[in-house]
Queue: 2 jobs
Job 1
Amino acid sequence: MKNTFGTSVSVTIFGESHGNSIGAVLDGIAPGIPVDEEYIAHQMSLRKAVGKISTPRREADAVKIVSGVFNGKTTGTPITFIIENQDQKSKDYGELAYKARPGHADFPAQMKYHGNQDFRGGGHFSGRITAGLVAAGAVMLTALKAKGITVGTHILSCGGVYDRGFENIPEDIEKLKDAEFAVLDDSVKEPMIEKIEAARDEGDSVGGRLETAVYGVPSGVGEPWFDTAEGVLSHILFSIPAVKGVEFGDGFDLADMKGSQANDSYRCENGKVVTATNHNGGITGGITNGMPIIFRTAIKPTPSIYKEQQTINLNTFENTDLQIKGRHDPAIIHRARVVIDSVAALAVGDMLAQRFGTDWLADIND
Amino acid sequence: MKNTFGTSVSVTIFGESHGNSIGAVLDGIAPGIPVDEEYIAHQMSLRKAVGKISTPRREADAVKIVSGVFNGKTTGTPITFIIENQDQKSKDYGELAYKARPGHADFPAQMKYHGNQDFRGGGHFSGRITAGLVAAGAVMLTALKAKGITVGTHILSCGGVYDRGFENIPEDIEKLKDAEFAVLDDSVKEPMIEKIEAARDEGDSVGGRLETAVYGVPSGVGEPWFDTAEGVLSHILFSIPAVKGVEFGDGFDLADMKGSQANDSYRCENGKVVTATNHNGGITGGITNGMPIIFRTAIKPTPSIYKEQQTINLNTFENTDLQIKGRHDPAIIHRARVVIDSVAALAVGDMLAQRFGTDWLADIND
Amino acid sequence: MKNTFGTSVSVTIFGESHGNSIGAVLDGIAPGIPVDEEYIAHQMSLRKAVGKISTPRREADAVKIVSGVFNGKTTGTPITFIIENQDQKSKDYGELAYKARPGHADFPAQMKYHGNQDFRGGGHFSGRITAGLVAAGAVMLTALKAKGITVGTHILSCGGVYDRGFENIPEDIEKLKDAEFAVLDDSVKEPMIEKIEAARDEGDSVGGRLETAVYGVPSGVGEPWFDTAEGVLSHILFSIPAVKGVEFGDGFDLADMKGSQANDSYRCENGKVVTATNHNGGITGGITNGMPIIFRTAIKPTPSIYKEQQTINLNTFENTDLQIKGRHDPAIIHRARVVIDSVAALAVGDMLAQRFGTDWLADIND
Amino acid sequence: MKNTFGTSVSVTIFGESHGNSIGAVLDGIAPGIPVDEEYIAHQMSLRKAVGKISTPRREADAVKIVSGVFNGKTTGTPITFIIENQDQKSKDYGELAYKARPGHADFPAQMKYHGNQDFRGGGHFSGRITAGLVAAGAVMLTALKAKGITVGTHILSCGGVYDRGFENIPEDIEKLKDAEFAVLDDSVKEPMIEKIEAARDEGDSVGGRLETAVYGVPSGVGEPWFDTAEGVLSHILFSIPAVKGVEFGDGFDLADMKGSQANDSYRCENGKVVTATNHNGGITGGITNGMPIIFRTAIKPTPSIYKEQQTINLNTFENTDLQIKGRHDPAIIHRARVVIDSVAALAVGDMLAQRFGTDWLADIND
């Protein structure tokens, strides 16, 4: 299904950047999970545009829950999140009705939707649609946390500046929880922001790498084929606009290792099976092995730049030039990280519910 | 569904390395597509173990089609491929019944299947199961070819030796078609094989990178969210044992570019819309733009190595040492490439059938 | 997926009877289909409670479209319909928080949701949730009509009074289009309404049979197994609260026929293949044969009655008596028929989109 | 997916009546369930043609399990059942290559598959394909039995002769287990068989009604919308060739009842919640209430009759006459009942696995 993802627990998203509302429906979630609207608002705030390194567009992003929550808890039936669009300035986008922005979906959308798509602000392709994923993900993150599973993402690189990798994962995840600009080594924050500001000043944009840890997932989750933990996670990760690469554990670096380097030895420590290293990122044979799931995503630079670009007119298919105006992010990597946390939680939560049943997430024992 | 992938056109796989048979069911494929058993045998031969750089296990890999083909053509109902296992030497595997091989699925399988899994030769986790995907993929590759769509994969790197990238894609794909060791620059073949042989001689193994081009896919295929062309392809690519990373276009390198570098300008050439560059690998906004789809996969080194390793006893959870015997590949990258071609064809064919209807692949006009 | 139905075209529903809003997301619908809000309002009015034979609850049922429609046409991305609940009188339902209404979902819901369900007015089980299906169905009915496919349902029986069957199907469907109480033979309307009023006066309720025709579906739609036209239709039909039986063509009466009576002979008339009779209701082998699809649904009497009933206390599991108060329908059959039309359209539209591709419904030819 | 059914536990079927083999793949079944090949053979024998009231075609129907079973137990990975076709006499079917048999799928198949379908013996539409469902169902029936869930179907009516309904359900199911001609009241067996023989002697056929009980399903299984217990069961039941109606509980008779008659009062007996009556067939609001699930299916008379019939030539679309030869069943109702048991078990088992997790069926507690 096109805008629905998941098997036992699914999420459906809808909306356009400059339409009336955007939102999401979270279905199949266990009953009895506390829904904390403040936590949802907190997660939404992490996704929001902030400061000089983001778009000047400002949305309140108030999430209205219109179904599925009763007396502050999930009912077990679909939770619907509605986020009204308020700060649309559609008149800015006039020329973009017929000029395809390079790096954007405008041209393929024209070929798929035959000119009926809502082109304003990227329409249904807008990164703004991820707000629904963040709202739905917040409920799942709450459920996972009660089961000892936490998720955190940091900006591993931005504009060529690198953060350190994960070390003590539970502590690192805790540190990232409230960070507006999520890095593990505080000293790289300013250099990264400088790169973003420099790009903005040139009318250009930058991308980067995000690294994510999912801590506490039990072993035995995922399938040997097709619905491998990697396959399911990558499927939803590539939905996030700008993600062009996903790798697990040491990922592409594994291609250069010997087997004797890449294999993670099993050890039994205090009655628990662990691996001495985690080159495989917590997943072997498509199934979790109880070690932290580690993956990295490549975020391409924001395609909306102010520099003049060559393109075509979508009506006449003639060559033309394009000077994008409007409000745009010189980087979205600091905003994307909470989206990654959210979709990772949704994917992992779904795999757990398939494995252990719907109620598992709520730990109901009656 | 666990061992079934696809929406309009789906493939179901089954079997264990040392069981009676392995195979696949290809469902939803258009009626009237010629099924050329010689071509299937050819594709199977590309996946086969050959020479000194592969496992000494030799399987005839004869594919028996037991349903869905009538008068040499697809009927439109499920095609079932059965490949009997012949050269099993299960006695080799005794110790592996209770010692978890590092880098393998043995431990997670134990946690998921509670000791009921067929451990012999990796059981259902064995790379041998990909033979069914190659058989099913051969039918889809035939159908795609008749629509002008071709697929080719080369070994971009192996043991640190690099091949050149794609240049003239249709010609490069043609060149790769029958290659036993698929490289574009013939001069890198021997150096790569030397790396594999050196690893084998050390009782070790190597991995590498594969690069794939899908040529001729029309624009407008894929979805903006979830079932993005990248998401669907990555989902099935990560099923292939040893794949630990997937990237599209310039992938992780995009993370270091500026927007002005990464954006692919549209141009109209001879009435056809093309992009001046293809940093996005033929997909923007999750939807194909008509340019070749380009992706790379990271293949980790084969985990079955002869060097002694530390691990646990799966019954007692005590630490132990493991010396793998049996027959193993020092590298599988040269065998994996036809599997990648096959699953890429299955995923792209499914997306096309969803977009244009079941019959489109057969181009029936009555 | 629990609250999502469909493969190429899917619908997701959400909401509770006394929550903030109910609604639906229609996804996968072709771009460029005109969305006529007046027609949607008309369809909603057919579902509304009217006159003395329905619940005194009155809802404006104003449908707000918050995504997926641009310039009066479908964009091809998800259409979201929001219907705010306004006339909730939750205080009426106090006792029902802990007493299971016989014939209702209260007890199974308690066992499934462990007391977290929104019990007010039936919560997510309420027939009110069908309003979202009617809104989504209206868009599909518009698309189908443009392809020559029409759908109509009449009250075949109510309280033991029978309507005539379909005769001239296109004319009969046209006649039913705007009927508040949908019968083909006008003379049975008053007798049926008298039965409903008599039941209401006794504090009781009645059920009935609905008969539906789907006219103009081309042959060759549906699958031989599992996704048979009958299987897909029955799956969504049984979602409608109170439906307890579904039969196609002569249905259960076929069980008493000889093969020579039940077989529909093929004839070629004016270059078109038809059948002399339609005992099979337009479907053989799970696939449409081009004749009208005919099915009947059994609607059980509304379970909310005013007569005293025996039941249990959901908290203590002790036996108790129940006297339902509040506002209830003595019959819902006259309201259900537009829901049947809507879900039949959604199911048939999905099968057509799978067969002929997403764009088929919009007949885009560029 | 076309030939795959189920979410957590799925079955994929394949094959043609006169092809090489037919079979099924059962996926997602819990590990550790004993697989008793004798029981599978027993179930196959119940489906087999026997005596004068069935087709003279005789198949050994030996089921070969080629994957997914190890040491006599399920592994948790796909179980593949292969049944070779042996007694094909394809030369009998010559004329049927181009003459559409009334009541059969020949004409819709021609429109769907454009002449590529395997027409021999009904091809993929043949009732013979249900053999795979019986094999897969046998494994699920074994798993369910260990959890206290049993399934039984009897011939409620055949040729106008009626059996008694279910009374003491566990005992009745036990009685039906091995019956070659499954009736509850032995005195109706001969009258029913006489009706079948009389039809056969006239070159005609008969149908009937089957009634099924699923005993021991816990409450709280199924979903409020779409994946209602009724919707999921009916979906797979309508796959069985010749099923044209499905009703739950009192089904169509509920349409003539008052609410006060149809509602099932809840009672607490010995600490267990039961209903005083079971008019709703164990399901309210789409969810099981712990009472036996009861449903009836309408089986149309076998369409292959020896009487001359009118039809069309599929190549020329001209009117013609048809005299079916070959080997055919004058009734299939006595063979269909084990197929109903099998698909009911598969559907119920899948719903249980979704609700309680994959392992629940195997009751693994480690």
Job 2
Amino acid sequence: MIIIMKPGASAAAIDNIVEIIQNNGLETHLSTGHEVTIIGVVGDKTVLADKNLEIAEGVDRILPVTESYKLANKKFHPEPTVVTVGNAHIGGDSLVIMSGPCAVESAEQVMETAVAIKKAGAQILRGGAYKPRTSPYSFQGMEEDGLKLMKEAREATGLPVVCEVTSQAAIEAAVKYVDMLQIGARNMQNFFLLKEVGKTGLPVLLKRGLSATIEEWLNAAEYILAEGNPNVVLCERGIRTFETATRNTLDLSAIPVIRSKSHLPVIVDPSHATGVRDYVKPLALAAVAAGADGLMIETHPCPEKALSDGPQSLTFPQFEELCAVLRPIASLMGKPLI
Amino acid sequence: MIIIMKPGASAAAIDNIVEIIQNNGLETHLSTGHEVTIIGVVGDKTVLADKNLEIAEGVDRILPVTESYKLANKKFHPEPTVVTVGNAHIGGDSLVIMSGPCAVESAEQVMETAVAIKKAGAQILRGGAYKPRTSPYSFQGMEEDGLKLMKEAREATGLPVVCEVTSQAAIEAAVKYVDMLQIGARNMQNFFLLKEVGKTGLPVLLKRGLSATIEEWLNAAEYILAEGNPNVVLCERGIRTFETATRNTLDLSAIPVIRSKSHLPVIVDPSHATGVRDYVKPLALAAVAAGADGLMIETHPCPEKALSDGPQSLTFPQFEELCAVLRPIASLMGKPLI
Amino acid sequence: MIIIMKPGASAAAIDNIVEIIQNNGLETHLSTGHEVTIIGVVGDKTVLADKNLEIAEGVDRILPVTESYKLANKKFHPEPTVVTVGNAHIGGDSLVIMSGPCAVESAEQVMETAVAIKKAGAQILRGGAYKPRTSPYSFQGMEEDGLKLMKEAREATGLPVVCEVTSQAAIEAAVKYVDMLQIGARNMQNFFLLKEVGKTGLPVLLKRGLSATIEEWLNAAEYILAEGNPNVVLCERGIRTFETATRNTLDLSAIPVIRSKSHLPVIVDPSHATGVRDYVKPLALAAVAAGADGLMIETHPCPEKALSDGPQSLTFPQFEELCAVLRPIASLMGKPLI
Amino acid sequence: MIIIMKPGASAAAIDNIVEIIQNNGLETHLSTGHEVTIIGVVGDKTVLADKNLEIAEGVDRILPVTESYKLANKKFHPEPTVVTVGNAHIGGDSLVIMSGPCAVESAEQVMETAVAIKKAGAQILRGGAYKPRTSPYSFQGMEEDGLKLMKEAREATGLPVVCEVTSQAAIEAAVKYVDMLQIGARNMQNFFLLKEVGKTGLPVLLKRGLSATIEEWLNAAEYILAEGNPNVVLCERGIRTFETATRNTLDLSAIPVIRSKSHLPVIVDPSHATGVRDYVKPLALAAVAAGADGLMIETHPCPEKALSDGPQSLTFPQFEELCAVLRPIASLMGKPLI
């Protein structure tokens, strides 16, 4: 931690800060410049967390030097983490594709989708049973009935399934049926929910919040990891910007940034990011070329009849074609599609 | 609802859309231009919600004409709503100031604060017992013990109290102690939580999400209203932008926008918006001049010892001075401080 | 300047940095922590500007401690600057209102406006003769003919005039007719233009760029000041965010931030910020309550016939009413309308 | 164009709008709903451009249906444009890489770079002679001397050269030396400059503004095209968002969006977008996979000695390695590196 004093801070003010720090068992280093004095702090700064040095007499700014997340931090865990979901290994040697409808609507829809996406190359089936919707008057999901349909699809095809959870009740239901829990973008800082999915021990897919910085996202992962659950996969799904041509702005630079700061696997969801079917393929290819460990792609037997997010869903032939085009690029990137 | 067809859309494609709409009992009006055909839809469009016309053959875009929120909409409820919390009437003839610490820390802190802010002119005591924090290693609040301290402060001073809730368990505890529930910015689209606070019937302070549009914010209010709870107060607290000189960017234009679209009262929290104590006063004055129904201002007996957000808290003398400066402006705006 | 080394940076890497710095005549202070080593640099850091220490072996990050702007910096010029334009003193003891049409359209329009706004309380006439428009097919302004009309209005009413300049040719024409030059938001980082208006010595109204940080804005002012022209007035006019209910998001927190960092006067343009006539009054009042030195308000004899930005222009009766409501608030803030 | 009337707009108000439109020679279509009346307008709407119908009695909103850019619009020019610069064909069958230093610094630097990047696979040499810098105290470029060095490098290697221009004087100098003019992000809406580069007839590389929507960007291109210069290449280089882990947020979704709306070629600059050398390679690969027509990559013989933007520059071996990794992906995408 570095404390920058205001120009002209008095010697008494500087001494006061130094004393507070040293009284808390930490060491200080002073740099006295022409304009400002800087105090470097050495030792475990968490003991200063509640001291509010920012507003002590003479202090201009405090700059953190180390990240607040520890378990998610590559510095303390340099080896990449591989998260296993059924037969899929996210963060390992192959590209893992999750696919399925935005919302579970019927047994036929889910079963038909599971069969089609497995044939094309997907390894995990997605499908929402609890849908967070902007308006209370939109379709809110089939809830536990939807989870059951997902489980049946897994039993029929062997594909592990991932479903979003939006409350403690949803978690309690989901753990009976699914292989991986998803925290959606709107709940990325629902810290209560993060702790609860952490306690389940199940793999968690943690989507980035619409306006979350990468540092906040890794801190959200830290909430899950701190419950003793190491199985966290990050999912970039677009951030909110001023641009209106796409629903959100897919931030693919998040992939190399995450790689440099964390050991957790990271996948990309181009369907929600763009909201437009025609933009899914180019951005899926781009995500793989940028080094993603996997993709989440929405598919639907008949997108124009989907109850949620139809405009961004691929048909099965479109998904098959996407997988075919992806295959050689994934191989070039050292993460073949298996 | 307006459907804009692509240039060169075939007559068959246009007929298909018209047929779908009419089969759902709605009326259509065609405008056939040189470049594009536009289909106006008349009637209750909710029956089309799941038709995904956006991806039907030949369709370019669909533009909504009416807002998705109804109960929060001024069009259907032109009279301003007044929300009563203890003796305070938010949205009525006077300016209501809520004040208190970011986090409840001790009996002395809360009691001392309640007495001081009441004397200065505040009508409601705030204080967080459940704190959503970016890092799992930061102070997370006193929970139910904190709620009890808030209740004691109310009993001693007569000031009603408002506390944030972050989970169903927190709601269950809070309803026993507090007069108003707060939904924080990070939970603005935690739709499960919105429904739950709706069911309590208690007044709800709904903070704007960090990247929520005003339309999404009003839809979040709609979730609460739709549970039969009309007592919703909106709170602008800054949105996330590229600017780093302040913690967030306070969007005071939200006040006249809300006034033109909704009947719900709206207050402003300049403390969280700026994160800097020196900026609180000018922005509090600005909020009142822009027409706010109230303010939420953080205060602390000794900000440098606060366990949360000390740098933005006012001391009691600073808060007194703020109220003194506010008083004549509030009177000029027709909302005197009582 | 502070240099933060990577965890595990070698002693050789640290020595190398220290040597580079000392060879350039500066002093270093080392803080050696458990995780990282920090090097404080004392002395005139501009000699290191081109050394690219960021990418030297072992370096993690470099943090600047002092601002890059000097002439605009309050630290080196603590007294507030007052800019005189005709009889108006911006940054002084009174609130200065600039008003007039977005675009100059005709002699009658300009003359009628000048008379009306003067009567209501404005001290400076604005009017665009060179209009930067998103589309090349929109009205681009009357150019020098428009400047002449502005000068005639000044001669008739005594009001000084301010006009935007968008090129060297526009500057050469404008200096013959106007009292103050305006740099628009889109040209805030047109550094060539900033230098050229700096050379004229005329007062300059510098609008904030749509996505400019306050620090970049002050650096843009520095370009003008560095040409020996101290007469710069800043104008907040809204920044670009994700919100679409207003054209831009007016950032009133910029006022106290500027006050804490610079001695330059700052005014607010609520007309361009919101783009909606009904929102101009509440935000004009808010700007004055936040401490603005002045306002820029668009007016038009007949807004529905304006060639540019009619929807945000006030009629003369609306402007008169605004001034009447502003008057007592301006007096309370210690900046009466004269 | 669609005009949405307010709920309860009077018949007289509706008739008034219809009359204005018809008096201007256009046709109207009315959709009268339960809540609102909608007026569709058929014909050349530019005749209504200055009518300000938005503020006519009873009007709620006006929605444009067609884009304001025509020459840049794919609807009116469906074939992709290929821009020829020396031997390079941007938008054609191969991937075109532009490379070189951020700023021209010396004859040796430029010549050495030209030779190295040509050998690795680049087809165009870039180098800034006029540098727009945030602070007036940063290195501002070698100006005409820099242009001469670029020309010498072209004569020696045969590589065409591209240089940024920031003023009319810079254009006048540049046309004597360079093959392609660049408009930088900060000047994207410097409409005067756009017209001037349009008049030269030389190929123009138009960078996206830091907060420009894609629609504004295409309108900026329209300014150049409208001067009779069809040789415009768009360059995505990151937009400004709240994320601070990268200098800007590279918006790769802009590539498919541009493809769907315009016939102009589009390239990507991952160096300026990220500002971090280690992130350049993954995002360069991603850009090619997303369908870019080319890349702009900063290189320097010795990045730690660069006078501008060293931290994002690649060394020659790094650039060679990037080209080697790019080669098979470019081939897969149907745009081999030649």
